[in-house]
Specification:
Blueprint: H1 8-25, H2 29-47, H3 52-62, H4 68-91, H5 97-103, E1 104-106, H6 109-116, E2 121-125, H7 137-140, E3 144-150, H8 156-166, E4 171-175, H9 179-186, E5 195-201, E6 214-217, E7 220-223, H10 227-235, E8 239-248, E9 251-260, H11 270-285
Parallel strand pairs: 1-9, 2-5, 2-8, 3-4, 3-5
Antiparallel strand pairs: 6-7, 8-9
Helix pairs in contact: 1-8, 2-4, 3-4
C-alpha cells in the first residue's frame, strides 16, 4: 500500500507530532503513568465526558444483571483504561527491546514458538487493553514477522503517524482490503525470509451484508468480521486467540489459546464462533479493559 502524499503543511505537522511523541516517550515512567495518565483520566471522564452515553448504553445492554453501582464502577475504570492506552500508544514512539521486555511479557512463549515454528499463523486480537503491544511478538521471536491488518485512517497525517508507530524491523502493516493479496505475494518466500504472523482485530463493527452471520455476544445479537476465518480456511493456517492480561499501569502479559489447528474440518463460522466465546470470556473477567466507547451495536438483526 502506497504511503499517502503529504503537502508541506502536513509534513511539518507530522514531524511536529512525531517529535512531541518521541519527547513524551522519553519521560520517566512515574510521570507518564501517574501524572499524565491521571490528568487524562480526569479530562476524559469528568470534563469531556467522552462518549458517555455510548459507554453507558453498551454496558447496560451487555450486563443487564449488574446493578447501577456495578456499571458505574466499570465505566469509571474504563475511562482510566482509555487514558492509559493513550499513554501506551504514544510511548511506542521510542520502541526498544529493553523497553518491550519491561512493559510486555508472553506467557508460555517457548511452547508457542514450538507450536508455530516454520509456519505462518493467525493471531486474532481485540480492542482489549493495549492491543498495540501485540506487535512485540516479532521482537521476541525474530524468525517471524508480525503483519498487522488494519483499517487505513482518513487523515493522511494520522495514517503516516500510525504507520511509523507500528512498522519496524519485526512488524509491518497491511490494509484489510489488501490482506489476501499481500499474503499471496509473500506466501512462498515470507517477508525477508521470515514466517508471517497475521494479526487481525476482529471485534469492530463490520458493514452489514445480506448474508451476515449473527452471533450472541454479551447478551446481544452481533455480527463480526470473518476475514480471519476465511483466510485460515483457504490457506489452512492455524488460528490463536491472543489473550491480554493487565499486570499494572502500562504493563501487560499475553498468552495464546488455540482456536483452529489448520487441519481440523470445521463448519462455516465455527472459527469465528470460538473467537467470540473466548473474547466474551475475557471481557467478562476484566470488562473495564474493553473499548466500550465504540458504537459496536449500530446494526440490528
Amino acid at each position: 500500500m502506497e504511503t499517502p502524499k503529504l503537502n508541506l503543511f502536513q509534513r511539518v505537522w507530522l514531524e511536529t507530532l512525531w517529535g512531541g511523541m518521541r519527547l513524551f516517550a522519553m519521560l520517566p515512567y512515574w510521570f507518564k503513568y501517574y501524572v499524565v495518565e491521571n490528568l487524562l483520566f480526569f479530562l476524559l471522564c469528568y470534563v469531556l465526558r467522552y462518549r458517555r452515553q455510548v459507554v453507558r448504553a453498551n454496558l447496560r445492554n451487555s450486563f443487564p444483571e449488574k446493578s447501577a453501582r456495578e456499571l458505574r464502577t466499570i465505566r469509571h475504570r474504563f475511562y482510566r483504561t482509555l487514558a492509559e492506552i493513550f499513554v501506551d500508544t504514544v510511548d511506542l514512539a521510542c520502541k526498544s527491546p529493553a523497553r518491550a521486555r519491561e512493559m510486555f511479557a508472553i506467557e508460555g512463549f517457548d511452547e508457542q514458538v514450538r507450536r508455530v515454528q516454520g509456519r505462518d499463523w493467525i493471531a486474532m486480537l481485540a480492542h482489549f487493553g493495549c492491543w498495540e503491544y501485540c506487535s512485540y511478538w516479532g521482537l521476541f521471536e525474530p524468525s517471524q514477522m508480525v503483519v498487522a491488518v488494519y483499517h487505513p485512517l482518513r487523515s493522511p497525517v494520522m495514517e503516516c503517524l500510525y504507520r511509523r508507530l507500528r512498522n519496524s524491523s519485526y512488524a509491518t502493516t497491511v490494509a484489510m482490503n489488501d490482506c489476501v493479496r499481500f499474503y499471496l505475494r509473500h506466501r512462498e518466500t515470507g517477508i525477508g525470509g521470515k514466517n508471517m504472523v497475521i494479526g487481525l482485530i476482529a471485534d469492530q463493527n463490520p458493514p452489514r451484508r445480506p448474508n451476515s452471520h449473527w452471533f450472541r455476544f454479551l447478551d446481544q445479537d452481533t455480527i463480526f468480521f470473518d476475514g480471519g476465518e476465511k483466510l485460515a480456511r483457504r490457506f489452512r493456517l492455524p488460528v490463536y486467540f491472543a489473550r491480554m492480561e493487565r499486570l499494572q499501569r502500562g504493563r501487560y502479559r499475553m498468552s495464546f489459546e488455540l482456536l483452529y489447528d489448520g487441519t481440523e474440518e470445521v463448519a462455516e463460522n465455527e472459527i469465528t464462533e470460538r473467537y467470540v466465546r473466548a473474547l466474551e470470556k475475557m471481557i467478562c473477567q476484566r470488562p473495564e479493559l474493553w473499548m466500550w466507547s465504540h458504537r459496536r451495536w449500530k446494526h440490528k438483526r
